[in-house]
Predict the 3D structure of the following.
Amino acid sequence: MLAWLPAGAQAESVALAGMLGSKALLVVNGSAPKTVAAGETHQGVKVISTSGDQAVIEQSGKRQTLRVGEAPVSMGGASGRASRIVLTESSGGHFMTPGQINGRAVQFMVDTGATGIAMSMHDAERAGIHYKNGQAVQISTANGTIQGFRLKLDSVRVGDVEVYAVDAVVTPQPMPFVLLGNSFLSRFQMKRDNNLMTLDKRY
């Protein structure tokens, strides 16, 4: 579960609870779900288009893509710049969150022990990353040494918070998640409070 607030303002929270035909089932600021068709507006949030399990919404000229089952996103805010991510610990004791690499959707697991972002070649290919143009490196594993690739990701986004030029490594080993390591986490002031992790962006 995720929540984030733009600097200096309380954000509108918008989630996609489901799809009814071509209509989006929106939950705005925790209110009861409301079916909204493309072109219609609900509590200041306009649905631009729907497709499959996702909908493109717009508020105050700002667009977001929502997917069914993902955490609410924040819309608007006086500064237009989000700076906080709040993660809730999963039942397995990990902090999981959907996110984006270079604009492509991925599933992250926070790993404070990882130097950078780490992903499998399969995930890199899915995200459209030309990892073979990166620097070839040797990676030590429990089963010996394997060859991976080190590179910089153009952008990494969690919720409304986006950072640029993030170091990553791509490994041939299959991985269930993309590891969100310190090349991303070090851009934030991290605070742990019971089952919550708060990341405040450094400026």
Q: What stands out?
A: Confidence is low (pLDDT under 50) at residues 1-11. The two ends are 25 Å apart (CA to CA).
